[in-house]
Amino acid sequence: MALSKIELGAIVALGTSIVTGAFVFGQLFSKVEVLESRLSQYEQQSLPAIKMEIDTKREELLASIREERVKAIEFLSKSGEIPVGSVFPYIGKESSIPGGYLLLNGQTISKSDFPELFSLISTLIPSAIDNGGSFVQLPDLRGKFLRGWGKKVDNSTTKVGDFQSSQVGGHIHSYSRITAFYGHNYSGADMGWASVPKSGEALRHSGEGGDGSNKYRSGVRAAIENTEPMSAKLETRPENFTVFYIVKAKASNK
Q1: Does residue 55 fall inside a structural domain?
Q2: Where is the signal peptide (predicted)?
Q3: Amino acid 238: pLDDT
Q4: 131: left (phi over 0), alpha (psi -120 to 50) or beta
Q5: Could you tell me if 112 and 105 are in contact, meaning their C-beta atoms sit under 8 angstroms apart?
Q6: Under a CB-based contact definition with an 8 Å cutoff, are residues 223 and 174 in contact?
């Protein structure tokens, strides 16, 4: 049966659509491959740069925080609200300690450079005065904890500015058993004696023998628990966080 012109036209149109669709799909597939290739190149080339930029921004942010902290301290200092001799924990770099502040590391300062702090330290710690009264040694707070004075936990002679050595408070260990042992044993005989009688008398003699023993048991057994399997450490300390201790050395920051 012969197809009509309409049917033939429909078949031709359908074939054209199929061919066109295949062509379009092929183009789309090629574009997807190109995009995947570009994405892979971007990951290899750009991600390290992005990570570096993030790290740089983080360091810049930390530096900005440190700078703002220093500015805040300097502002308070300029306003006169922080007296000379005030001690602060500082977590910035040692090279970034604000002007007008000194590190409490045992360094020596002169009366001419820091008259107010010199007067305070020399009054509080007379033994720190050095070199004919022109210099004074600051306290060395490296590796030290600060302790608030008062509450009757110190003896009557303790005052602000004193150092205390480390110590361990009294405590008790319980003993679970006490035993002891002592032994002694003796065995032997006396050699005795004999006398030569006169003619017609019997021989006289004497002798002793014996044995004995004595025992005594004593000792100490202690039940002591140690939760630290390693060897003993050099110090007993609470959890802590390392900082610089700095002191307000001048009324101004210059």
Answers
A1: yes
A2: none
A3: 83
A4: left
A5: no
A6: yes
